[in-house]
Design brief:
Helix content is 77%, strand content 3%. It has 264 residues and is mainly α. It has a two-stranded antiparallel sheet with strand order 1-2. Strand 1 and strand 2 form a beta hairpin. Helix 6 crosses helix 8 (196-224). The chain is globular and about 60 Å long.
Length: 264
């Protein structure tokens, strides 16, 4: 259970900081997302170095995406598309043209990490219940991941995706799903924000999107032939290992909340 202990230690240290900055909102939230994004991008581009991503363009495009999110989803998309402009500008200034795989690797970082965290910023910026919604998504993913990890270790027998992520089991997925559904149910109960069926739908969406995000990163790591994206967070691995589920759940959660709630 050494990995579990290190996960708990990292969570105890980082969660209060994350929750404080989320509560502060505004540029504090953007700054938190930017720091996490820069570290995660560094790990991703290290894994894909053979594809020769244009690092400066990826960092610039991701920052533009996160800053744009502070003003709205359309500005976040505009920031993301600026990545393509940065790729050609920086490569041209170096006297070369980017290859297809170089552009793809660069844009992957801005799309996956930049847009993923930008949608977490967008959730925080939702009127009235933005703080509660962000806390709920964060806690639901954390609870789901922890429950799946413990159940997988204790009773996991049936592999979920043995070729991509041998450690994931269906038993862990069931435990993680229960945790992901329970958190929004209690968080929004009697809050006049989401009804019970809507909160359960949000939990179910998180329960599905989170593992898909994990498997997506696992596939990239297997392709790059690495076990973890880094060692920064001890038992959690690298920053990207910690963010992989959030990068999918934040997008799904934001658009589901927009569909379910009238913010006008």
């Amino acid at each position: 259970m050494t990995a579990l202990v290190s996960r708990i230690v990292v969570a105890v240290v980082l969660l209060p900081v994350v929750f404080l900055l989320v509560w502060a909102g505004g540029w504090w939230m953007v700054g938190l997302a930017a720091v996490a994004a820069m570290i995660a991008l560094h790990e991703l581009y290290a894994m894909t170095r053979e594809l020769r991503p244009v690092l400066v363009a990826g960092y610039a495009g991701t920052l533009a995406t996160l800053v744009g999110a502070a003003w709205g989803p359309e500005w976040a998309l505009a920031g993301f598309f600026s990545t393509l402009v940065f790729v050609f500008l920086f490569k041209a200034s170096a006297g070369a043209m980017p290859t297809t795989v170089s552009v793809a690797a660069t844009v992957l970082g801005a799309a996956w990490i930049g847009l993923g965290l930008a949608h977490l910023v967008l959730i925080r910026e939702l009127p009235e219940h933005g703080v509660l919604a962000t806390y709920t998504v964060l806690l639901a993913v954390f609870a789901s991941d922890t429950a799946a990890f413990i159940a997988g270790r204790l009773i996991g027998r049936h592999k979920m995706a043995p070729q991509t992520s041998p450690g994931k089991t269906w038993e862990g997925f069931v435990a993680g799903t229960i945790a992901a559904v329970v958190v929004p149910f209690f968080a929004f109960y009697d809050e006049e924000f989401l009804s019970v069926p809507e909160s359960l739908a949000l939990g179910a969406a998180i329960a599905i999107a989170g593992p898909i995000g994990d498997l997506f990163e696992s596939a990239l790591k297997r392709d790059a032939q690495v076990k973890d994206s880094g060692r920064l967070l001890l038992g959690h691995g690298g920053m990207l290992d910690r963010l992989d589920a959030f990068l999918f759940t934040s997008v799904v959660s934001y658009y589901l909340l927009i569909a379910l709630v009238d913010f006008s």
